[in-house]
Specification:
This protein is of the alpha/beta class. It has a domain at 121-179. Helices cover 34% and strands 29% of the residues. The strands form two sheets. The chain has a six-stranded mixed β-sheet, sandwiched between helices. A hairpin with a 2-residue loop joins strand 10 and strand 11. Helix 7 packs antiparallel against helix 8. The longest helix is centred in the C-terminal third of the chain and has 16 residues, at 195-210.
């Protein structure tokens, strides 16, 4: 078990809870003015000028996610949903409260992190695989399937800088889905690629859902919430304002934009 600043990751086989969030808070310090030097910084401090303001992004979230749930997290831009996602992924740590993760968690957040544009597609596949914890032998075994799923076999030996942004995302996604975990955390990843590739992604997530994979999807697409989710949570101004039936939560979310 790992524990750091309110985040615990553990495996409890008999427990049907995948994630438990208790009184979760997150704050950021935003600078309000710049000091031109050490003298100015000391002068500001003596005047009681902090030089920053506190932005409260998450304000005491409490909820549980059960194993096998496909849960949608929705909310307007700035509501705090992406901050919650990054806390779950371990990118941010909470300012207060606790996150208990029961099992291994794989985040699909920033696809292609670690890609090197000066390397070929082939070299980047092995590089990205290593970042995900795969050995060279494991990457050898899944290599052909990665390129087949991405539909980019003919570009393996071209430098990544010659790929379009869409091609890079497709390749990154094809690598990322090889990572296996008890809980998958997705940030709009269903929107990658063209229509045909999106359908392939949809089929992949439908299969995960049918097999009882625990999935958390942060999205603005109410179509995906209705299609995939077994439950949805809406966050507004750092607080949970709806939690339950995905159809009803999707309707309530869309009503926010009626005016």
């Amino acid at each position: 078990m790992k524990e750091k600043m309110g985040i615990r990751r553990e495996v409890i086989e008999a427990n049907d809870t995948a994630i438990k969030i208790k009184n979760l808070h997150k704050e950021f310090k935003l600078p309000t003015e710049r000091s031109s030097g050490l003298k100015q910084a000391i002068f500001n401090r003596l005047r009681g000028v902090k030089g920053y303001k506190i932005q409260k992004v998450l304000k005491g979230l409490d909820f549980e996610i059960k194993k096998g749930e496909f849960i949608g997290i929705v909310g307007r831009n700035g509501s705090g949903k992406s901050t919650l996602l990054k806390i779950l992924a371990g990118i941010y740590y909470p300012s207060g409260g606790e996150v208990i993760v029961n099992g291994t968690l794989v985040p699909f957040i920033e696809l292609g992190v670690g890609f090197n544009p000066e390397l070929t597609g082939r070299e980047n596949v092995y590089l990205n695989g290593a970042l995900l914890g795969f050995s060279n032998k494991e990457m050898d075994e899944m290599y052909d399937d990665i390129w087949k799923f991405a539909e980019l076999e003919q570009f393996q030996d071209q430098k990544l800088k010659n790929y379009s942004s869409g091609m890079q995302v497709r390749l990154a996604f094809s690598i990322a889905i090889r990572a296996k975990g008890d809980i998958l955390v997705l940030d709009e990843v269903l929107a990658v690629g063209d229509a045909a590739f999106q359908q392939k992604c949809n089929d992949y997530f439908e299969n995960l859902k049918e097999h009882g994979q625990t999935i958390i999807l942060v999205t603005h697409s109410m179509e995906n919430v209705r299609k995939f989710c077994t439950r949805a949570i809406m966050i507004e101004d750092g607080k949970i304002v709806r939690d339950g039936n995905p159809e009803k939560v999707a309707d309530d979310y869309l009503k926010l934009f009626d005016n």
